[in-house]
Structures are given as structure tokens and as C-alpha cells.
Here is the input.
Amino acid sequence: MRAWEKNFRKVEPYVPGEQPKLDTMIKLNTNENPYPPAPGVLQAMKEFDVDKLRLYPDDKSDILVGALADYYQVDKNQVFVGVGSDDVLGMAFLSFFNSDKPILFPDITYSFYQVWANLYKIPYETPALDDSFRIKKEDYYKESGGVVLANPNAPTGIYEDLTFIEDILQHNQDVIVIVDEAYVDFGGKSAIELIDRYENLLVVQTFSKARSMAGMRIGYCIGNKDLIKVINDVKYSYNSYTMNQTSLYIGVEAVKDEAYFRENLAKIMEERERTIVELKKLGFTCTDSKTNFVFAKHKTAPAAELLEMLREQNIFVRNFASNPRISNYLRITVGTREEMDSLFTAIREYVM
Amino acid sequence: MRAWEKNFRKVEPYVPGEQPKLDTMIKLNTNENPYPPAPGVLQAMKEFDVDKLRLYPDDKSDILVGALADYYQVDKNQVFVGVGSDDVLGMAFLSFFNSDKPILFPDITYSFYQVWANLYKIPYETPALDDSFRIKKEDYYKESGGVVLANPNAPTGIYEDLTFIEDILQHNQDVIVIVDEAYVDFGGKSAIELIDRYENLLVVQTFSKARSMAGMRIGYCIGNKDLIKVINDVKYSYNSYTMNQTSLYIGVEAVKDEAYFRENLAKIMEERERTIVELKKLGFTCTDSKTNFVFAKHKTAPAAELLEMLREQNIFVRNFASNPRISNYLRITVGTREEMDSLFTAIREYVM
Here is the structure.
């Protein structure tokens, strides 16, 4: 061991995520949208003034913050944007969770909550979901350093209504409550309407799923202006320019086209319901997903075997082998009708 | 004070950087390149396939890493890319500086080194530059947690040759030495040629200055493959997708056009030398800058007064009021010949 190696940061070795690049593949493993971004995005990209790239981007991300504020009918000082919701969530953990008491999030939820808690040395507890993968709200009726809930939750897909979220807020008025709504547009109702009543509520969303822009890395959060000021202060304190000019410029276009957005969502939700019906016919149980994926377990065929069989046919889905509670489940992104038909055919031939 | 406020992260209040947006302004305050990106960037942007934006970017940034590896004649596993060199430097601090001994960097240098050290709770010492703003290499002949040098240094503009860098490396073989070369293309020689001999050397560069791409947020570092693996492991451990698809795609074009790059650099270096001559005629002393800015002090007129006078004429330059050693210096970005002539005229009328 060379002397300088002893000061390396110790992290779990990196296992590359599966991002296959085959022309014929059916990619249902990372919850991407099967439809392209709004047509205005194409136009904006063609008209983008590249000469301006010599200048730093606006560090306040004003045009994109403004577009989001208009869309959600809030003030600009209630909106923060970042490089994907991962950037926004990480920044929120760093900004708001500086207590000796553990923060709380479910045992089965977005895996990066634990990662950021470890990174920033934030103590945490992970109350178990019940046997139906529902959050037990009483587990959050106690002193903590903060609360983080994905709603709909991932990878379960299960959505809790705003009465539930409000109950959690009522019981946690002394800490920040983050509601991560990456998938809320696929059938849920956003907690953004609660931010005026609960000044400790921060709602996080993303352009990666419903807005077909995973490739641009745009996320945002909305909350009381005092929270947004803190997160801005923290961000500016160590990295002033994160959002590049193209993200800011074409992000605005992705927010504008409401008709395209709604049509896109309707197609995905319809296909999700059809997928659940078809998978049940094939011997699966599925959660009541309000996302762009289904979470499904077959009555006999192990998830790992199904995943491998599908992979051999260039159909990629996701499983969670390392977590015993859900190791036999598949998370399958809702693709186009044609893609899902190919999936059903492959599974039918294997299990029937 | 509301209860949840006590867990906010404490940071210095944010003072917005001056990013004026006037059509007629002459912007010489943030070291941007006065010339647009390479012509291939425009073409690439127009041809960009926006439909692909629905997909996550390649988390390995393979096309851009490959283009940089080709350019610098190194292996792909010796290159890491990030969202501007701030992102790369911050990640390097987090990855390599986990010692109880202080890291070392000069008292006058890029202000963010101190910020990241504080953010990640890394102890540090800041040996003073000598009276000519030169690094005293003997200050770095001691046990430490690591060394960080900007070369050329900022805001002094002073470059030390590779013999100097190699001497620092010889005396610091047990820790990581970071050489931040944001400005090296404006007349310096890169330490990249030393990475095979010094496995503990990490060289950081950026697209923001010489490549006219501040607006795209692209930075990179080059070093021994073991260092690059660690920084990748750390990055992947908490944020897999930071580089958006447009950055990766058009970043490649900015690296390709060597003729445009060299022509652009030659114009700026020529204008820098003329600027130094002109400013001396007007009563300034200037450092021997090897960057795209000059660092200048007037014999009688205080920097703050000059800055204010110029601002009133829509000419923006930078000073460093909070640091007594350099509070009377101006940092003036090298713009076009016309822009610099306007600056000289304004100063001439004021000081003569």
C-alpha cells in the first residue's frame, strides 16, 4: 500500500448500473419515459445561441425557476433547481439535517437516502413498511432529526394521499419533512398545495420521469422561502454554477407544453393499468402503482430467473437481490404498448 | 426561531456574484473567454438528437472521457469529468484528503479551496506567498494531509515551471498533490506529462476558460488510474448522473478543433501582453500573468475607486476587498482589443 492511499475516502466499491446500449433492446430497468420530450424542446435546442456558452450560466437559474414558479403558482423564492433530484435531495439533506437525533425514512424506499445520510454523517432510522408495503404512520410520531418520504414510494409504487402526508406533518412540526415526488404526476396529487400551511415541508420533483428529460439532469424543490434561502446559501457556499445554460433554456420549454405533458402521462397510466391486468393473468401479484413502473412478484418463478431470461431476449428489468424483503420482486418500467407486449410474450412462454 | 431552524446548516450568508446582464456592458470580471466556442459546437448542437433526452446520460461519460484521453494521449481510465472544475476539485478534496494532518495551499489562491476544506471538515494551513506573490516551495517541505496548488495561480496570474512542480512532488510523495490548471493553456506547460512518474499527482483542468465553454460546466482531472478509480467510486457512491447529454456530446466537439483553439489562445495572449504594456503606461504595476487576466495595482488610485468608476461606465472588473494583502489590486479579464481599448480610455481619463 502506497502511503497516500491511507487517506482515500472509503466507499462501497462501485457496481456499474446496467445501461445497455443495444439497438434492439427493450429498456424497462431505469423508469425512463418511453416518449420524447415536448416538441418545443427540439425547437429550443436548434435555436440555442451557442456563442453565449462562453459566459457562465445565470447562477440563480432565473428563467427556469421562473417557469416553475409560474407553473405551480408559487413565488420564485419558493423554488430551487439542481442537477437532477439527486442533487436537490443531497443538498437538502446537507442543509436541513444537522441534528443529533436520527432522521426517519422507510426500510424500503429510494436507496440513496441512506447514501446521503452516510455521506453527511447524519444518523438515521428506517421504520419497516407493513406487510403490504404501506408506511406505518405511527412510526413517525416521535422525536427525530427529520423525515423523508417518497410519495409514491419506490420501488413499491404505492401512493399515500395528502391526508396521510398532512398527518405526518402534524406530528413533525419541529423538523423538516421532505416529500420526494419523483413519480407523483403518474396519478398522485402533489403536496405542493400544503407548503403555505406547513413551513417545514419541502417537496422535491424531477424532469427525469414525467417530463421525459432524464438526459438533461434537472430536479427541483418547492417550499417555504426560508427553506429555499437556506438551500441556496448552502449550494452557493461551495458550488455557484451547477445548471448549465442548455438545461436552463430547454428546461423552460419542457414545462410550457401542458397538452403534450398530459397526453404523455395518460398514455403511460393507461399502459400501466393494462400491464397490471396482463401480469396478473400470467401469475403475478402487483402493487397498486401510481408511478411509471409496476412492482410485481410471480407466484412460482423467482425474480432472478425471470430477469435473466428476459435479459437473454434483450428485455431489461430491475430486481433488488440484496434486500430480502423484496428480493423476489421485479420493478418493470412502463414502456410503449409494443414493448410491453414483447415483455408479456416472453414471460408467457417462460411461465405457462 | 422556529424549532426546525436549529438544524439548518450554518454557512456564510450568500453574497450574489456580480453577473450584470446589460447589452452594452464590457464584462471583464469573471475570466470568461471573449470568443465563442469552436464552430463544431454550433453544428453539434443543431444536430443533437433531443429524443434521446428521455434516457439517462451515460454515467461513465465515455465519449467525453475518450475525447480527452485521445487529446492528452493518456488512457481512458486516467480521466475523470465533472460539472465544471469546481465539481471535480470538490470531489477530489472529498476523495483524497481524509487525514488528521492539515492540507496545504497558499494564503492567496482560489478561494474555494478553503470552502471545500471547511465543508468536508479537512484541516488546512495556508503558507503565505512571498512579497512578489510567489509560492515559497520550502513551506511545502513538511508532513501534511495533501497539497493543492493552482498553476498559474489565481488571482495573481503567476506561473511556476514544471521544475518547481516536480520539486514539490519530490517533497510530498506520501500524499496527493493536486495541481489546478484552469489557466494553463494561456502560456504555461501542463503537469499532465508528470503523471506517469508521480502516481500521487492529480491535474485538474476546465472547459470554462481556454475552450470558451463556461456556460456548459465541464471540468476534468487526469492522473494515475488508481486515483481516478477512487474519485469515480466516491462520485458514483452518491450521485451517478451528473453530466448531462448535451455536455457530453458538444464537449467532444470543443476538444476536436485544435486550430481554432490555438488561434483563440494566441489572440488572448497577445492582447494580454498589450494590456500589461498599456496599464504600465497608465501607472499600474502588473504581475507577469500567464492567464487570461491581468492582476494590477495603480500607484495612486485605490482599486475600489477604480472599480466603481469603471462600473459607472458599464465596465466590470473584480477586486478582493476582504483580503488586505491584495485589496488594492484589480483582476481584469483579457477581452477583445476593442473592449480593452475602452478600458484604457476610461482609466486614462480618470488617472491622468
Residues 258-281 of chain A form the longest helix (24 residues). Chain A is about 35% helix and 15% strand. Chain A has a mean pLDDT of 95. The first strand of chain A starts at residue 26 and ends at 27.
